Amino acid sequence: MTNPMPARVLERLKGLRSSMHPSGVFTSDFSVNEFLLVRKAGFEPVGLCVGSCVYHVGIQYRSWSKNQELEVLSKAMYHARELAMSRMRAEATAMGADGIVGVKLTIKRMAWDDHMLEFIALGTGVVHAEGHPGFRAHDGGPFTSDLSGQDFWSLLHAGYRPVEMVMGSCVYHVAHRGMFATVASAGSNVELENYTAAMYEAREIAIDRMQAEASAAKAEGVVGLDIHEGSHGWETHVIEFFAIGTAVLPLAQELAPEKIADPIMVLSVND
């Protein structure tokens, strides 16, 4: 898509609330609790940010008996997510947001083609209530984070801020076991070492790539790390490991965590 900001998107963004348009409305996918805690942290929601990419994932031939990364597929999955993320971030920039909270990355298989996937990035653009510029990413654009509203408040209260959502992907072919090896272990309690080695290496590759992104973002560390596994309809023995988390940095000195208001705790009597 050569134009990352279609006319329909620009029309929607015009209706959002801002300092120049106080009569507009904000939109978000926050729960009520998330909404309140994000505001307690000193931020206001601006609007829902969405990025989409429909991608044709190619094929790669592999050895039946070899553990190996399928680099063509790894690059495709990574590139498609990057396109969706960049379009979501472009919407945040257009609405004047300082960052995006609660980013969700999802993949949907298109019914009309087995090799076609839609990658969707969705989160809520937020702006600092006092206009402080110290929350933006290292490139001056909006920060991105997959933290919930509650975790976002807790992170700031602990003296850290989100910088960038970082990720790493590895699509891996797990070697098949030969007939003799299968028969030899039948009925026995025994580790299947080739499977162990494959799963171990694939996860390590994904985590290492995520760490490299955090280093490039000049972050101090990564919080909320999660590793997702999925086959996305590929053949058996092909699996993707996807590592994702939020890179963080300490707050600037003038943004002391003591300035962040504590929430009022309420005990729910509902089941």
TrEMBL record:
Pfam families: YbjQ_1 (PF01906). It comes from the Bacteria. Belongs to the UPF0145 family. This is Uncharacterized protein YbjQ (UPF0145 family). It comes from Rhizobium paranaense.
